[in-house]
Each structure stands twice: as C-alpha cells, then as structure tokens.
Amino acid sequence: MAKTLAEKVWDEHVVRSAPGEPDLLYIDLHLIHEVTSPQAFDGLRLAGRPVRRPDLTLATEDHNVPTVDWDKPIADPVSRTQVDTLRRNAAEFGVRLHPLGDVEQGIVHVVGPQLGLTQPGMTIVCGDSHTSTHGAFGAIAFGIGTSEVEHVLATQTLSQAKPRTMAVTVNGSLPPGVTAKDLVLTLIAHTGTGGGQGYIVEYRGQAIEELSMEARMTVCNMSIEWGAKAGMIAPDQTTYDYIHGRPEAPKGADWEAAVAHWSTLASDDDAEFDAEIVLDASEMTPFVTWGTNPGQGVPLGGVVPGPDDFEEPNDKITTEKALEYMGLAAGTPMREVHVDTVFVGSCTNGRIEDLRLAAQILEGHHVADGTRLLVVPGSVRVRLQAEEEGLHEVFLAAGAEWRGAGCSMCLGMNPDQLAPQERSASTSNRNFEGRQGKGGRTHLVSVPVAAATAVRGTLSSPADLVLTTSS
Amino acid sequence: MQAFTQHTGVGVPLRRTNVDTDQIIPAVYLKRVTRDGFEDGLFAAWRGEESFVLNRPEYAAGSVLVAGPDFGTGSSREHAVWALQNYGFRVVISPRFGDIFRGNSGKAGLLAAQVEEKVVQRLWDLLESRPGTVVTVDLKSRTVRAGEGVEAVEDSFDIDDYTRWRLLEGLDDIGITLGHDADIASYETGRPSWRPATL
Ligand code: SF4
C-alpha cells in the first residue's frame, strides 16, 4: 500500500499494536533539559526503575541558564537548584549531559542536529513542544509532558494514537529577502493556531526543497504553533550533506546503509493524505505578528487589524483583548510600531545562518537610540563559529549585546526578560501574553526584519534600511 | 494515579479562548523540582485583577473549569496540569484542547472533557448568572450536567476510549508498558545498528 513519509517512519517504530489501544512506539532519541525532567527522574527513583536506554538519551541545560557570567554559579537559587538537580540525575542514571560551560551546551533543538544525532527516519521526543524542529530531517519528532518523559526513560517507548497526515505544499520560490520564518508565519495566519491539530504535517513543494537545512528547521519548529503534532520534510541531498561528517553521523559502510534506507522514506507518489493545504511562496512577503498568538500576523506592509475585520464573535473578542494587551490601535501601519528590544536567537532562529544574515544586515549600521538588540546564539558551537567568522564584532560595533548560549528571552525564564509594556521584535516562536516577561509585548519576526528593526527602532525590513542610508 | 469515575464540584467560567500554557502558568513559576506547590503560578498574570473569576468568593471552591476553545495550547509543560490540580481542579471542560495538554491531563489524572462550543456557552451563561452552581461530570456515561429547569445543561463529552479506561481504573501507564517488556526487547534486537547512540 502506498504510504506517506510519516506513515513509513511510524510503522517502522511500532513495537506493539492492539485493537482499541494506542500503538506502542519505540523512541530512537530522547532529549532532556532541566525544566521538564526533575519530576520524571523522581518518579523513577520512587519506583526503583532504571533508565532503560541511557545510550539513546541526551541531556543539556538551556531553558533556565544565564547568558552572561555563565562561568560563575547561577545567581538565582531556584534556577540553580533545577540545574543541579539535572546534573545529579544525569550522574545517578548514567545519562550524557552537556552542562553550562561545556562546548556542546546549547538549546536542545540546536544541539541534537549539530551533533548529527538527529537523522532521517527516527523517532525523537523531548519534554519541549518545539521538538518538532527535528522533523526537518524526516524524523517524527514531537514534544511530550513530564509523565511521558518518565515513561520514555523507563521503557524507551511511548503509547501514542496514530495521528492523521496532512500535506502542506508550498509551490514557487520565496522572493529575495523573504525567509522560512515569513513562510511559516504566513501559513499559521492562514490556518489559525488550531489548524494542524491532530495531524503530522509534511511540508513539501519547490519552496521547501529550496530551503537550507537550517531554514527547514525554522519551518518545522513552528509546526506546534498551528497545533500540529509534528512537522516533517522528506530527506534529500541537502539533508545528507548537512549530516555527513558530524560527530555522531554514521560512518563508512554504516553511512552507505543509512543513506540507502533514508532515500526510501519519501512519501509514495500515490500516497494519500487526510488533508492538504497549498500555498504559493512567490506571493509571500516579510510577515510579522500584531497580536498574542502566532496566528495573529499580517504582512509587514500591512496595518494592525481591528475587531471589525473578523466575523466570528470569538475572534472579535480575542482581537480586542490582544490589541489591549499589545497597546496597539487598529489601523496603525505595522512599520510605525516602535520597538524597545530586539531579540535574535531561540531554537527557531538562533543558528549560524541566522547570525550570518543578521550580521550582513547590521554591517555598517548602528542600533537605534532607545532600542536594544540582544543576540543570543543557540549553542556554544554556534557562538564559537560566529566568533571565528568575526560576526560578533559586527554585532558589538552595531551596539548589540553578544550573549552566551541558551533559550534566554524566548521564554524569559532566566534574567533576560521584558519589563511590563516593553515591546520586542523577536525571532522566537511565541508571542503569548507574558511569554518574554510579565506584561511584555512580543512581535514575531524573521531575522532580516529583526536586524532592520534594531537599526530603525520601528518594525522594518532591510529594504527600508537601504532607503534610509541613501536618502 | 487516583481513579476517576464521577466528580461534582463548583463550576468556574473562564470566558477566554486560546488560553495557552504560558497563561496557565508562566515560565518563571516552573523552577520547582517537585510536583506540588504550582498553584501559586496558576493564571498568575490575571490573579492580580480583582475581577478575575478565581478571585471571586463564589467560585473559591471551584473544581470544574469551563474554558473557551484551544485551551492548553503551546508549551508542553505538564506543570500547567499540576498547577490546575494543585489549585483544586479535577476537570477542565473546553471545545478544543492543545494536544500535549490533553495527553498530559490523561497521564496526571485531570479530566479534559471536550464538548461542543455551544455547551460551553450555555455553561458560561449558567455559571455567571448563578455563581456557585455545581457541575457534575460522569466519566462512565461521558456526560456533563449542571443547573435545573430551563437553565439546565446536560450533554455528552468526548474523551478517547483508552484514556477513559485508564482514568476509570486509575492505571499507571508505565506499569502497563513494562508488561510488554518482551515486545520491546524483541523490537530492539531488530533495530539497525547504524542508528545513533549518545554513549
Ligand atoms: S528557545 Fe524557546 S522555544 Fe526553543 S526550546 Fe528554548 S524556550 Fe523552547
């Protein structure tokens, strides 16, 4: 029978299947961090259970860690306890850990691919909803809760009902200056935050094939923001080239065997999806959010919508509440929105290509008065690579803050937070109320928009910058 | 896990849609390493407003939360479920739940009952006009009931069969899976040797 990519990978991992029960799925890689794991390890200890496969488990510290003074003890005692707890648990249960200060430390979804641990056809889980990032390699990857973390630690499996499948086909090519981030924000505005619910989504079509591996990760990363269980992209030469030679990639005859298998994973031509969405990339433009969920977005050239632009009573209420929270008036051009803080980083846009792009735009410019720019690399490796290429000098010369690796202002769990009513343009993935600090107001943007916004102090694209400098 | 068959308790109308897990409990409250004590962070951003529903004495003993669509979207934090439970909620009713939140609820023993949107509307109207009204949620018959006479609301709710069974029996998921240990071991012998390992 013809199968989709998702079905092939799923079926290969079914340990047990019985009528009326969810499938028992084998997990190839379990990623762990300090916030969602302590109670899971506690559960194991209470029940006297070991970690079944420490060799398929990897831990790092990311959500909570400071991005300055990372060589000193963590100042916040509660954060320190959480990180210390992870270190104790990793030691006790024999799990490999990349702690703060280690060269492989970083955001869990940046570290996995970077080490070559993320490979096509795998099942990957983590107690973090943006685990969908790893789907860019053609893996089934999704976020789980702490009870499930404990379940995977104890059994290396998860019981999961098989989701339906959806194809998102993006035809055409993205215009110059329009990025994977704009693509996915456009998609989410189109579907709403619940549009993908219950589906494993496969992104395909010319625009997706043309994306680099890192850009594909940006797209898959945000699958959860429109409710999808997971997002995937069929592996191809771009995928193999990215993995080849990484520390944990297969080598020699293993590489040949792996690639031979990976190349069978693409959806069969006659495979049927339960749903399909078709978009045209050539019509896309830089896209930004105005509201308090990732579906509330408009083109950068557009205006802040108002309650009257929506038909459904619930949408009207939601819009009103979002505008009030965001401190925005309907009809305001997005380009006139002043921004206090620009954040470049996170598992959505904190990889080396993102930093190169930001540096390219910032070169020769300075951050606007009254605006601050935080550049936070997704991992220590990304930071070192950027420094080797001299990108940090561009950031510093532009007046940006150059930080250590971690989640940082993406979720404001460490000291990198917005003050109440402070407004940010952020390359992260969530603009929920209070996400970046209590009362903080977040606009989700692409890397080029973030960099240009930092220079002008209002939401901008690099095109606006050229105009400024030449006039 | 405590078995769940039926629950009757004060209904709390949360007239909001898209309540993501960052609203249920902001990240700064996630630093505890235990499963308790998260009630302080529940709806933290709204608890400061006097008019917020949880601050009204009539709803103080609330244990059945009635929320708009897309409740529990966003972050995977199970702390959102714990915060609701630590506060005293046993049931959340909504027309649509975030997938991970629903899964987490099932594991932790919080009943996530999915109803049609019009049922939520009627429950909101009832609970607001008669604060303190109790809602009965019966997992065996999959029904939700509240109020009397013309205002009475009685309808069915959705929950998948497997989660329902586990909740009714109060079964520990890991225990069930470890019963299939032989299947897991045999699967492992067939895994390709080139799959990556961390050690
Ligand atoms: S960067 Fe943000 S979204 Fe990514 S793992 Fe960290 S907190 Fe989650």
From TrEMBL, chain B:
Pathway where it operates: Amino-acid biosynthesis; L-leucine biosynthesis; L-leucine from 3-methyl-2-oxobutanoate: step 2/4
GO biological process, one term: L-leucine biosynthetic process
GO CC annotation terms, alphabetical: 3-isopropylmalate dehydratase complex
Family: Belongs to the LeuD family. LeuD type 1 subfamily.
First-level EC class: lyase
Gene3D superfamilies: Aconitase, domain 4
HAMAP family: LeuD_type1
One Pfam family, short name: Aconitase_C
Gene source species: uncultured Nocardioides sp
Name the UniProt record assigns to this protein: 3-isopropylmalate dehydratase small subunit
Cross-referenced NCBIfam families: leuD, PRK01641.1
Keyword vocabulary terms for this entry: Amino-acid biosynthesis, Branched-chain amino acid biosynthesis, Leucine biosynthesis, Lyase
E.C. number(s) listed in UniProt: 4.2.1.33
Record bears the keyword Lyase: yes
Residues in Aconitase A/isopropylmalate dehydratase small subunit swivel domain copies: 1-116
Function recorded in the entry: Catalyzes the isomerization between 2-isopropylmalate and 3-isopropylmalate, via the formation of 2-isopropylmaleate.
Subunit-level organization: Heterodimer of LeuC and LeuD.
Catalytic activity: (2R,3S)-3-isopropylmalate = (2S)-2-isopropylmalate
GO molecular function, one term: 3-isopropylmalate dehydratase activity
